[in-house]
Please model this.
Amino acid sequence: MPDLLLDFLSKSNDGLNQLDSELASLLDSPQDSTALIHIMTMLHSLKADAGLMEFSGIESLAHAGESVLHGLLAHIEAVNDDTINLLVEMVDGLRAMVEQLTATGLEGGNRDELIERLRCKAEILNVPSTSSSPAKVASVADVEKAPVIEEELAEDPVVMELDDEMKEVLRDFLQESYENLDRVDSELIELEEQPDNRELLSSIFRSIHTIKGTCGFFGFDRLEKVTHIGENLLVKLRDGEYSMSEEIATGLLGMVDAVRAMLAEISDHGHDGRKLYTQLIDQLTELKDHGKTSAGTAATVVRPGTDTPATAEPLAANPAAGDGNPADDVTAAVPAPEPAGVDTGAAANSKPAAAREDKAAAGIVEASIRVDVPVLDSLMNLVGELVLARNQIVEYVGAHENTQVVAAAQRLNLITSELQEGVMQTRMQPIHSVWAKLPRVVRDLSRACGKQIKVEMEGKSTELDKSLIEAMKDPITHLVRNSVDHGIESPEQRLAAGKPAEGTLLLRAFHEGGQVHIEISDDGGGIKPERIRQKAIENGVVTVEQAARMSEQEICKMIFLPGLSTAEAVTNISGRGVGMDVVKTNIEKISGTIDLDTEVGRGTVFKIRVPLTLAIVPALIVSTGAQRFAIPQVNLIELIRIDEEDQPRAIEYIHGCPVHRLRGQLLPIVYLNKELNLDTPQEGALNIVVLQAEKCRFGLVVDQINDTQEIVVKPLTEALKTIPVFAGATIMGDGRVALILDTLGIGQRARVMSDSPDRAVSLNVSGVTEKVGKSETLLLVSTDSDGRLAIPLNRVARLEQFERARTENAGNAVVVQYRGQILPLVQLSDFLHERRASRSDAVEEGDQMQVVVFGEEGRQVGLVVNEIIDVVDEVLQTRGKASREGVLGTAAIDGQVTELLDVTSFINATSALISDLEEAA
Amino acid sequence: MNNSKPQTYCTFYLDRYYFGIEVELVQEIIRFQEITPVALAPQVVKGLINLRGQIVTAVDLRSLLELPDRQEDEVPMNIVVKTPLGAFSLLVDRIGDVLELSDDSFESPPDNLQGMARELIQRAYKLDRSLLLTMAIEKVVSADVLNRRAAA
Model:
């Protein structure tokens, strides 16, 4: 029983997750009946399972939900946000109950209120529908109640027009049903021997119920009828009213055969055939009502094989002919008038037919099988060993002269590669299995934050190893939550920024260079480097000077460091719990990398790269001091060889640290033999392997670069795992063990990067040496006396041009009306005491004046300048002292001496003027 | 431990001492294998051995028990043991017999035993000619013990 419970719980969880994603897709396309049917199927099997386990709370809630869905299926136009929300609420209710069940073993909480609301909804929907819906679903109602079945039985079967997706659903249904039926067959036989085995009975019940439930949606009425009556019989057995007898077993087996026949019919023609199986139904009904057929076991007269497709079952050619009677029999549950019954002969008779149908169905059944994951794991291990053996043979044969041996080795090589690929394929799963629940997550979150977000997915079917899929789940979910919570802005903000109110979250996955790339991008506000910089300085992650020297991209990447949450407030969605550093650690655990691109106002892209699989990785084999090492190619950037005579020039030293100039950038050099304390001399040409780990790049000097190989990663023992420079070990072609180098570990050991980011930062900056100081954007203007003045652009609110005629005099100041405010204007010459005679006459004559507007604390003031010359980016190195008041100093810009305006003192000096004006106003 | 069921030991020699480990723990005994040294590893870890596709960590017991190093020309034997931490190869001088010893013939090691030996030697069986010292293998291969010597 606990097994059953576990089974139920895991199945329900899966089902609920699928429901989530289906509901989300329904939200996108409310008129999508396929999604509705999916939802219904899942809900129905959940209900059935819950019923079996006697969890009445879950069962009745699911049942209520199902009724709503029935209604919706008939009135697809009634699907709207409201109803979907109701359904979402129901799924949440179910989930809460299942979770409670997992935690405590008891269904918790009463959902009467929710059930009532669902019921109301269902009633509204169902009232006018009863007879019009082609997809008859009424019979899916509770098995306990005798359902009203009023199908037009003998009508020519309608071959449903199915779109591709429906066809797939149907194919799944058929395949699953075949599997179920095979199992039911053997379980029935077993049950006959041990009639009290409830587990067996439950399993049979479940299988039949699933078939019944699903065929209802497809409109396979006859199939449904047969399974329904069989199910009712099983209920009686389950409730202990009857115990298993040979007769009942025979009847049920007959039903299984009939179902199989009908499934074959469906698989061939798309409908469940025209046979009515009256005999079978009568027999089952009687069994159900009395526990035995009226004639007893003796009454095996009967037209033999009445219910086998091989013989002449009265075909209901005329729609009216078969109508009513059988249906009435079932509904009214009246004992069948004629002695019905199928003897064992009949059952046996149907065997050949069944066998034939099996063959027809074989194509479907054999298309896929279920395999335990441990089997695949051990297969993968074996392939790993085979790859090693292959490597050994290939290496050995390389020196061989016998062409036959060489040819055989080549074949072995090829086949091994193909086998490896094939086995890896078996472990591959589409990334969609991680993504499936995201639309729901996004939907819930965006509602909670009052945002509108749509999720787009590209490359759903991109596959990667199952173990990687598992490991990717949390990081991806976290990133998506982050994007929703912090990335995408509220609709108002978006509209204000000129973007559509609805934000887009794009998930992309694709293969490139033997790796899987996953991108999570949003079109939100981007990450503001200023905030990160501040936070980083606040938390002591970097110093002010370091922060000042970092590029914006570098600053943004600091969000991956521990202790840097930029969330201003901890919300219930993010800002606590796992941070970005954990995301990064988790991804790096599976040898992946994460990177981000962000642009303020445009959005953020997180780029994740992970290997296809972990067990076998391509690696570069190098050797140093007679030892070989493997370097995973993920970390490899390029290889450099420096001849002996060039070395003095190529390797330079900064305070004893060797560096190499690689295309204008300084590359720190690390000698592997020194790092590993191997006392081998470094001589001859220098082989440098350029490696990249995290954001740091360095050159690793090795004695020899051998070749690339696929290596099988084997872990090191506990005691050796503490050595950071090794990531594991592998066995080489000659059978010897080689160690796998951990790029990050070597970098840290060599101190070209360290755990604290400051070193990495300083090294990165040293790569771009030309920009020493902090560059600033300056506005160049000319003064009345033809001098040049520079104003830091970040202090300038805007540049304006006013007609002189528009200026007015207020009190003792010149003002202009500007954006509904009064803007006081200050002549530059009034502020700076000109030493030379002003040429104000020249200025007076023009009827346009150039004004630099400063705005501070809501007050604005305009500085009238002679001419606006240019905007330049300049590293300010003030030379001279301030020549006069209001000037910070002088600098040479564009080869001309330029004064730097002291904006603060300018604003201070004019504040008196402004407050005067305000009083006047 | 308290019953009198006899215990079978695989014995071996180290320097002038006679040691034993429970025979159930021994996976196999092999001659000298080529060892790939692991740079930066604790001194007692001699390196890694490829045992039919399985990577086995080789631990030099002489070094671990602070005994003098082997002579240059002496080739050690490998006793491969199964432990919860994986397979290890213990490098010893010579392999002895397999002995069945009853539980009443041993004593705990004397209190004046020093250093690593005190921690790793479990029992001293009083044989006719000599003492057989048995070792706690799980302790021998633990990261804690292996790394201790590196620090010392």
Chain A touches chain B through 25 residues (CB under 8 Å). The mean pLDDT of chain A is 73. The two ends of chain A are 85 Å apart (CA to CA). The CA atoms of residues 86 and 550 of chain A lie 51 Å apart.
